[in-house]
Amino acid sequence: MRIETALLGNKLQKKPIIWTISGADCSGGAGIAADIKTGHNLNVEVCHLITANTVQNSSELIAVNPTQVEILALQVQALRFDKPPAVIKIGLIANREQINWLIDMLSEIKSQLPNLLVVYDPVGRASVGGCLSSLPNSVLAPLMPLVDVITPNFIEAKQLCTLTTTSSVNDTRFMAEKILRLGCKAVIIKGGHNATEKPNDNNTHCTDVCLQSLSPTSSQLFTLQSPKINTSYSHGSGCSFASALASFLAHNYLLRDAFTLTKAFINQGLLLATEVKNDISDDMRDDKNEVDRNRYYGAFEQGFWPSKPNNFPIIINPLNQKLQSTKCFEPLDLSEGEKLGLYPVIDSLAWLALLLPLNLNIIQLRIKGNNIIEVEPMIEQAVAMARDYNCRLFINDHWQLAIKYGAYGVHIGQEDLNGADLNAIAKAGLRLGISTHGCYEFLLAKQLQPSYLAVGAIFPTKTKNMTGQIQGLENLTQILALADTTPVVAIGGINQQRLDKVWNTGVSAVAVVTAITEAQQPVTATKTMQARLC
Ligand SMILES: Cc1ncc(COP(=O)(O)OP(=O)(O)O)c(N)n1
Ligand SMILES: Cc1ncsc1CCOP(=O)(O)O
Ligand SMILES: [Mg+2]
Question: Which of 114, 175, 118, 109 is nearest to 148 (CA)?
Fold first, then answer.
C-alpha cells in the first residue's frame, strides 16, 4: 500500500517533527501507538509525551494511570531545543494538574515558536467503553485559545457545547460555531458517531465539518462527505485522525487541504482494516471467554499517504447546488490522448497577434483592467482574431463579455466562482477553466465538471501574489492522481528550466506568462517551449 516515492518527492526529504501529548493504550490500537504509526506513515517524526499509562484491551478500559506533570515538564525541557515541534497534537489529558501544566507550557512555547500549531483531540470516553477523562468545560476553557484545531467527534462536540438534545447535520454548524466561541481557531466535528445525520436518510454517509475562524466576525466552512464505512475495526481512528491532521499541517498544508487528506487517510484505513483473530489455544482459554473465541482483536489499520481517488471525500458546497445544469461544460475537443501543450497567458492584442501564427492549441487573454469601454472592444477583436487561426482562446475573468462575443472558453478564479453565472456559461456552450490551489479546491471544482482545471502556483512567481499557495511538484502530482479525465493545466513560476519537470508529471498544459513576455526573443522562446511539450 506504500505510495510511489515519486508522489511524495520533497516530502520524503523533509521530515517535520510533531509532538504528541497523549495516553498510551497497552492494547496498541489508539493513543500514542496510533499517533506514532500515523506519523511514521505520513513521514513526520513523532516525539511522544505520555500523559497516562492506560490499562485496556479490546473489550474494556480497566485503569488510567496519569503521569506526574514533573515528568512531562522534564520531557518538554529535553525536547524543546533538540526537537522543536512544527505541530503539537494533544490527546488524553488525564487530570486537572495536567491541564494547568499544558496551559502554561503551551503559552510559553507558542510565544517562542510563533508558527507552532496545536491540534487537540478531546478524548473523553474510550471506544471500548469507560471514561478516560472527565474534565468539565470550565477547566478546559483556558486551554481553548491556545488550540488551533480541535477535533471532537459528534458526541464530544455535543459535550463541548453542553448540548443534550440529538442534533441533525444541519445543527453541526451551530455546534461548530459554539465551539469556536470557546476561543480555538478552528473546529473539525467528525460525523462518524452522528447517527442522526439527515440528508442521506439511511445514515449511509459520514459528514465531517470544519469551521475555521478568519477574523473575530467571520469564519469559513468546509464540509466533507464520504460513504459510511461500517467496520468494527475503528479503534484508534479518532487519534489517527488528529495525528494525521497534525502531520499534514506539519507538512505545511493549509487547513482545508490537511482536512481533505486526513479524511482520505481515515477512509483508506477503515477500508483496509481486516479482522485479526484472537489466536488463543484451547488449553489457555478461559471458559468465560468461550464466546470470544473468534472475536475481533484488531484496530484501525494505518495506510500510507492517500492517493486513490475513491478514498477522497465529496466536497459539500453551495456551488454544487447552484449549478442546475446536469450537462457538464463543453470539453476541449481534444482527440484521445492529445494534450494542450504550451498555454501562453497574455494581456494585449499585440501579444495575441504575435503568438497566433505559432499554431498553439490554446491561448488566454488576461486583461486586468475593469474599464468596460477599453476591455469590451479588445475581447471582441481577440475572439475574431483567434477564430481566424482556429486557436482555443480563453478569456480570463470577463465571463459576460466572453459569452457575448462567443469566445471558445472562459477562465474563472476562485474569487470569481461564486459571482459567475455558471449556468449561463454552460448554456452558451463556452468551455470553462477554473483555478485551484490545493486538493480541496481541486475536488470541489472538479465536481462542477469543467473543461479543464488549473493548479497553481507550482513555483513562486512575481506575476501574481500567491503567498501561501505554492504547490510544488509534489502537490501537483498528488492532485493529478485525482483528476480522472479532466485535463490539468499547471501555472506559476514555470520557465524553460522547470518546463520538463512540470511536463513529466503528466499535465495536459503548461501555462506561462513571463517565460514568454519577459523573454529576450518571445517568439523563439515560445517555439522552443512548445516543441518540448509534444
Ligand atoms: C491557466 C490559468 N490558471 C490560473 C489562472 C489564474 O486565474 P485567477 O485565479 O482567476 O487569477 P487571475 O489570473 O485572474 O489573476 C489563470 N489566469 N490561468
Ligand atoms: C495568473 C497566475 N495564476 C497563478 S500563478 C499566475 C502567474 C503566472 O505567471 P508566471 O508564468 O510569470 O509565473
Ligand atoms: Mg481571474
Answer: 118
Closest by Cα among 202, 429, 427 to 333? 429
Query: Looking at residue 294, what is its pLDDT?
Result: 46
Q: Cell numbers at residue 244, please?
A: 494525521
| Host H or E run for residue 490 | strand 488-491
| Confidence band of 285 (pLDDT split at 50, 70, 90) | low
pLDDT mean over 299-326: 85
Identify the sign of the CA torsion 269, 274, 280, 285: positive
CA-proximal residue: ligand 1, atom 12 (nearest): 413
Residue appearing with cell numbers 464466546: 291
State pLDDT tens for residues 48-94: 999 999 998 877 889 889 999 999 999 999 999 999 999 999 999 99
Q: Kindly report the CATH number that applies to the domain delimited by 319-532.
A: 3.20.20.70
74 HSE (CA, 13 A, CB side): 5
Residue nearest to atom 4 of ligand 1 (CA): 435
Q: What is the DSSP string of 154-197?
A: HHHHHHHTT--S---THHHHHHHHHHHTTT-SEEEEB-TT-TT-
Identical fold at 15-280+292-316 and 319-532?
no
- Three-state helix/strand/coil letters over 122-140: CCCECCCCCECCCCCHHHH
Supply the DSSP symbol for 141: G
What was the ipTM of the complex prediction? 0.97
- What are the structural domain ranges in the chain? 15-280+292-316, 319-532
Q: CA–CA distance from 132 to each of 164, 269, 371 (Å)?
A: 20, 24, 63
- 354-385 pLDDT, tens digit per residue, is 999 999 999 999 999 778 889 999 999 999 99
Q: Which CATH architecture has domain 15-280+292-316?
A: 3-Layer(aba) Sandwich (3.40)
In ligand 2, the atom with minimum distance to the C-alpha of 518 is: 12
The preferred substitution site among 346, 453, 461, 471 for testing ligand 2, maximizing ligand atoms within 8 Å of CB, is 461
Element (H, E) at 97: helix 96-112
Asked if residues 367 and 394 have their Cβ atoms less than 8 Å apart, the reply is: no
CA distances (Å), 168 to each of 39, 112, 189, 200, 207, in order?
33, 42, 13, 11, 11
CA of 363 to the centre of ligand 3 (A): 15
Return the amino acid letter for 80.
R
Q: Is the CB of 123 under 6 A from ligand 2?
A: no
Question: Which residues are CB-neighbours of 72 under 8 A, at least 6 positions away?
Answer: 21, 49, 51, 98, 101, 105
Ligand 3 centroid to 514 CA: how many Å? 17
Atom of ligand 2 nearest to the CA of 459: 13
Using alpha carbons, list the distances in angstroms from residue 234 to 80, 127, 241, 269, 302.
33, 9, 11, 9, 11
